[in-house]
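Data card: per-record layout.
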Amino acid sequence: MPTEWTEWAITYGGVSEVRVTVQGPVTQSTITDTQGQYGFANLPWGTYTVHVDVPPAKSFLRMRTSKPISLAVERACAEVSFVAQSRSRIAGIVLDERGEPARNAFLKLEPADYFDPAQGPGIAPGFGVSTDTSGRYAFDNLPPGRYIVGVNTIGPTPGSPYAEAYAVTADNDNVVSLAVGERVADC
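The structure for this 187-residue chain is written out next.
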């Protein structure tokens, strides 16, 4: 699941305390460790289904919950990974000065508290999206944190990805705080 920002991308980490079950010629279960790792040893050869049970406390995650594997011979190995997407989201609508939806406005999402001494101030990782024909935008699958949403109605430009305009929350703050699994709308 998303855990933090590294350079210009979100870093993903393992999900702990998830039950993983393998079913086939034998059935075994285990719980993922603090890094999201799990393992089964000495399984007889055959066809299996690996199933993941997402606990209610982690219902903010969305993932494919089962995958088939085949151990064709004795001492065969297989690696099965599951990718969990966070349901965390920041979304809203951009309106122009007349209160009309702003189509194709460019928005950049940055972590508010990021600083890399090698890059200097003002340089932060992030990514951008454009509004649809109704002026709507969404940033999905985000790690928890504090974010700034920059808005530019003329699109990204070299050296200045967006003009000095920022989205604000209902509390009139330009920093959007996002908890694990939270959805913030109409920023």
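Known properties of this structure: The radius of gyration is 21 Å. The chain has two domains: 2-85, 88-184.

See the next section for split statistics.
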